[in-house]
Write a structure and sequence with these properties.
globular, five-stranded parallel beta sheet, 137 residues, alpha/beta, single chain, Rossmann fold
């Protein structure tokens, strides 16, 4: 499974976005299921705008099963908030933290993002070890 960040979702569904073509090509190469989190969707819908064509397209994509959604439970939310505190010197928002928590819970390290700077610093914990995120772009 590959987790999808806000940037690619906005770029994929807004043809005016300067990363649109690049993200579409990257999505065409992906052969694994893709998933995201509720905080990422919140950001994406906010950035696309509530009455935009991009927002409508993203909604259709989700409803047709193109993208699954991972939901927080109380423990996952607590862990995301802890990660935000841990990365306070390199501010981590809730959307990014939710992807790291989802990666740990699902056993993946792959994140489709255009945010190489932040995701290049984050680590996914497996037992007592921490591994770099595998950036898909």
């Amino acid at each position: 499974m590959i987790l999808v960040d806000t940037g690619p979702l906005v770029a994929l569904f807004d043809p005016k976005d300067n990363q649109h073509r690049r993200c579409r090509k990257a999505l065409q190469r992906i052969r694994e299921p893709i998933s995201t989190t509720v905080p990422v969707l919140t950001e994406a819908f906010h950035m696309l705008g509530p009455n935009s064509t991009g927002s409508d397209r993203l909604r259709d994509f989700i409803e047709k099963g193109g993208l699954s959604v991972w939901f927080f439970d109380a423990a996952a939310l607590t862990h995301a908030l802890e990660l935000m505190e841990l990365y306070a010197d390199h501010p981590m928002g809730l959307a990014d933290a939710s992807l790291i928590v989802a990666a740990e819970a699902s056993g993946t390290r792959k994140v489709f993002t255009i945010d190489r700077k932040d995701f290049g610093t984050y680590r996914v914990q497996r037992g007592h070890r921490h591994f770099p995120v595998e950036i898909v772009s």
